[in-house]
Amino acid sequence: METVRAAERELMARLPEGALMQRAAAGLAVACGELLGKVYGSRVVLLVGSGDNGGDALYAGARLARRGAGVAAVLFSPQRAHQGGLAALRAAGGRISDDAPRDIGRADLVVDGIVGIGGRGGLRPKAAQLARAAWESAPVVAVDLPSGVDADSGEVHGDAVRADATVTFGAYKPGLLIDPARDRAGALRLVDIGLTLPQEAELEALQHEDVAELLPRPAPESDKYRRGVVGVVAGSARYPGAAVLAVAGALRGGAGAVRYVGPAADAVLARFPETLVHPGPPDKAGRVQAWVIGPGIGDEADALEDVLAADVPVLVDADGLRFLTPERVRERRAETLLTPHAGEAAALLGRGREEVEAARLASVRELAARYGATVLLKGSTTLVAEADGPVRVNPTGTGWLATAGSGDVLSGVTGSLLAAGLPARDAGSVGAYLHGLAARRAAGPDGAPILASEVAAHLGAAWRDVTH
Question: For binding (6S)-NADPHX, which residues are annotated in this chain's numbering (predicted)?
Answer without folding.
Answer: 52-56, 116-122, 144, 242, 296, 341, 408
